[in-house]
Amino acid sequence: MSFRMRSTRKALAALLATGVGLLPATGASATSSLGTSHAGPRVTITFWSAMSGTLGATLGHLVNQFNSSQSTYKVDLLYKGSYSTVLSATIAAVRAHHAPDIAQIFDAGTATMMYAPGVYVPVHQLMSQYHLKFATSQFIGGAASYYETAQGDLDSLPFNSSTPVLYYNRSLLAKAGIKAPPKTWTQLASDVNPLASSGAKCVLSASGAYIMWTDMEQFDLWNGYPYATQNNGYDSIKNVKLLLTAKPMVQHWAFLGSLGKRGLYRWNGTTNSTVPFFTNGSCAFYENSSADINEIEAGAKFPVGISQLPYVAGNPTAPQNTVVGGASLWVLSGAPKNTYLGDAEFLHFMMSVPTQDYWASHTGYVPVTNAAANALHKKGFYKTHPSDLVAVLELTHKPPKPWTRGIRVGYLPEIRVAEASAIAAILSGKTSASSALASAQAQGNKVLAEFASQYGG
Amino acid sequence: MPDRAGGAIFRGKLLPYALVVPQLVIVAIFFLWPTVRAIYEAFQETNAFGTGARFSGFTNFASAFSVAGEVGTIEVTVILAVITTVLAMATGLFLAVEADQVGRARRVYRTLFIWTYAVPSAIAGTLWLFLFEPGLGAGAKVLVDLGLKWNFAVHSLQAFALLVAVIVWQQAAYNFLFYTAGLQMVPRAVLEAASLDGASKLAQFWQVVFPLLSPTTFYLLVMNVLYAFFSSFAIIDVITQGGPGNATTTVVYQVYRDGFQNGNTGLAGAETVFLLIIAAALTAVQFRFLNRKVFYR
Amino acid sequence: MRERGLSQALRHGILIFAAAIFVVPLYLAFVAATHPARDLLTGVPLLPSGQLGPNLWRVLSRGLPNSAPVTTLMANSAVMALGISIGKLVLSIPAAFAIAFFRFRGRMVAFWLIFITLMLPIEVIFFPTYQVTAQFGLLDSYGGLILPLVASATATFLFRQFFMTFPVELADAARIDGSSPLRFLWSIVLPLSRTNLAAIFVLEFVYGWNQYLWPLIVTTSPHSATVVMGIQEMISSAQSFAVPQWNLVMAVALLAMVPPVVVVVVMQRWFVKGLMAGSS
Questions:
Q1: To bridge C274 with a disulfide, which of A75, B156, C40, C199 should be the other Cys (CB 3.0-4.6 Å)?
Q2: pTM, whole model, 2 decimals?
Q3: Above 50 in pLDDT, residue C197?
C-alpha cells in the first residue's frame, strides 16, 4: 500500500529535483553504471526486431551464436511486433529517451530514419570508428542501392532482404491444363477461366500486410515505371509526388478488381494473413515475399512452384528489376558509450559470410553481401534450391535505372495505409480503380508535403 | 441534520492536506499536466522524432478533421455511439423486462448475462475476429453460405457492423444490470394499477413503467456513449485497425494512429483537445444529472 | 393460468436463447483451444478435441513464438490490476475522508480538481499522458502501468458520498473521546465501509485487468507486458505461420478472461453494488 505513495513521492521528488522535461531518463543508462571493464557484467545490447515465427527463431539462433562467441556483450533480442510497430515504437522510444541500441527498421521506414540526423549513428561511421571492414561495395547491388545515401554511404546495415515472387499451386494448374506459370499479367488473365472451370476456388491472392509492396511499389520497379517523381524520392525531399494514377497501375488494379468481383481474388486487409488461402489449397497463384518460401513449402500439402512476378505484356521496359524489401539494422544514438563497440561487432557478425550463409539457407532471404552470395553459389546451394534462385534473378535482372533503385519517400508507412484503403475500396467493388488510386495519391501527396515541411526545414 | 459541508467535524492544520495531497499530486501529474501539454502541442509542428518544432497556428486543427477519405472520424465516432447505444440499451431493456417477470430465476439469468461485460474488450474483439475472419471464421462461413460476400477487411459497412455487434455483445449486459435494478425500484402498486387499467401490456410499459426508468435510461445513455467514444479502442485495434479506409476510425483511434504510429504529435495534440471538449461536455451533462439526483434530493 | 404458464415458458425460452447466442463466441473459442492448429485451417469444428491441456501448457510455459510465457503476462496483469485497485483505495479514502470530515482552505478546490477527472478516461488524454510518463522514465515499468491510472474521481466521490451519510454523533463522540481523526478513520469509518471497499475493489480490479490501450503504449518489452494487451501481438505472431496458430491464441484468450469473469460472477453482489453506486 505504501509502495504506491512512495512511488508518487519519488516521482514528485524527481520532478522537483531535476526540473520539468530535463530528465535524461533511459533504461539503458542503468547499464553504464554496471561498469565498463571486461571484468564486470556483460554489457547488454537491446535489439528490437520484427521477426516472428520461424524467422524469429532463426534470428534468435544467430543472436545466441554471437552471444556465446564472446563474453563482453549480450544482445537482448526483443520481438516488438510487425514492421510498422517496430518503427513507431522506435520513434516513440527515441522521443522518450528510451531507445533500443539496435532496431530492425523495414524498407518503408528508411527515408523517415535517414533524414533524421542525430537520431542514429550512421553504420559506415560506426564501422570506421572501430576499424571494422565496411564498404557499400561489399553489398549486393539491390540492397546497396535501396539503402545507400546520396553520397553512396550506408547509414544502416542491410539485413534481411527479399523480393516478391509468384508462388503457384502445381496441382491446381495441372488440373486446369496449364503447363507453365504465367510470364505476363495477360497470360495470368488467360489462365483465369481454365482455373475457375476446373474447380479452383480462387485464382490469385497476395500478401496481407504488404500488398502495396508487391502490387504497387514492386509492380512499378519490375516493369521499369517510376513509383514517384524525383526518381522515387532519391533526388529530393521536396516536391515528391506519387504516380499511382499512371495508366498501367490503374489497369493492373482494374484487373485485380474484376477478379475480386468474381470472387477469384482473396485479400483480407493488412492485418490478416493471406498465407492460409494459398497453403489450404484455395488459391492457384500467390504473390508474396520470397522470405516465406520455407514457411509456405512446409505448410502446403501440394507441390508448390515458384516463378518470377508477371510483368505487363508488350511493355518494352519490362522486366526491369525488383528491389529488396525487408529491413536494415539501425544503431540509435544516446546509448552509453561502452555499447557502441558492441553494436559494431554485432553488426559485423551479422554481415559475415557464415551468418549470411546460415540466414539465407534457413530462410528465403537472399544473402546481402557479394561474398556470401558467391559462397552460396560455390556451395551449389542454388542447384539444390532452385526456388531460392528466383528472387536473386529478379533482383539482378537488369542493372537498375535511376528510378528503379528503390523507393525513398518519407512517411511511406503512412502512404501505404492510404494505398491499403484504396485497395479495399477497389476489391469491395465500390470504387473504380482509377478513382480509388487517385484518392490514395492525393492522400499520399499530402503526407509527402507534410514530410517535406517537417524534414526540409 | 446539520450541513456537513458547512460545519466540519475535525479541525487540523496539516492533516487534511496530507490526506488529499497524494491524490492531488497524481491528478496534477497525470491529468492536468498532460492536458496543458496537449494544448501546447496542438499548436506546434515537428517531425516524427520531435526535432525542429515550430509554431503552426491552427493548421493541426484544420488537418486533423479535414475529411480525407469518404467518411470523417467524427462522423464515425458519433454514428458508432448512436447505433451501439440504441441497440445495447434496447437489448438490455428487453432482456431485463423479460427476466423481471420470471420471478426468482432472475438471479440465474443475471449470471448468464453479466459475464460478457467482464470480458476484457480486447479479448472480446479476439473472439469475434476468430469467428468472423474472412474465409476462415465459422461465422464468416455461415454468412457466405447465406449468400453474403463477407470480407470486412474490404467492405466498410461489414467492418462497422462487426464492430457494432461486439460492442452490443459487451454492453447489453451492462444495460441489463441497470435496468434490472431499475425495474426493482418500480413500486408494485404502480405495476398492478397499470395492469388493471386494461391497456395493452405494451402500452402499460411505455406509458407507465418506462418513464419511471428515465433516471436509469439517462445515466445509461451517457455511459454507453462514453463506451463507444473511448472504450471501443481495444475492439477496433484488434479487429479492424480503423479500416477499411477510415470506416471504423474513431477519434481516439485517430489519436493513436497520428500520434503513436505516425509520430505526429501536433495532430495528436489537436485531436486530444477535441476529445477533452467532448469529455467536458459529457461531464457537464452527467453532472447536471448527478446534481439533480444527489445534491438536492 | 394456463396462458400465463405458456408465456412464462416462452419467456424462459427467449432468455435462454439469448444467453445461448451470447455464449457462442466463447464456446467456439473453447473448441478451438482444444484442437491442434491444422484442424482450424479450413474452419472450426463444432466439437472439442483433446488438445486443451497441451495447448494451455504450451502458452503458459512458453507462450507463442517471440512472446513471453503467458504466466509472466498474467503475473504482470495481476500486479497491474491489484496495484490499480489497491492504489485507488489508498488514495481516494484519505482524500474523501478529508473532504467529508474536515474544513480546510482549498477544500472545495481539491474536491473539484479530483472531480474533473471523473469523466476523463485515460483514452482521452492517453497521448500526452504517455509523453509525461516517458519523461519520468516510467515506460516499461510497473509504476508507468499503474500510477497514471490510480487517480479515481469515482472512488473519491463515492466514499465522500458515503461518509456524508455517517451520523454526526458518531464523529462527535469520537472527538469528545479525544481519539484522533486517523484513529476514527481506522477503527470506525473503515470497518463500516467494508462493503463499499469490497465493491470498489472488485470494480477497479476488473477495470485494471481489462486495460488495453494504456499498457499497449507504455510497455516496451515482455517484462512488463500484460496478457490483455499481449493478445494483439499473439494474433499476428500466430498468423505468421503457414498454419495459423489460432488454437493457441484462443487458449490465451480463455486464460486472459478467466480472472475478471470469475471475479465478477463470484463476487457478483459486490460488483453490481460497485457499478450501481456510480449511478446514484
A1: C199
A2: 0.86
A3: yes
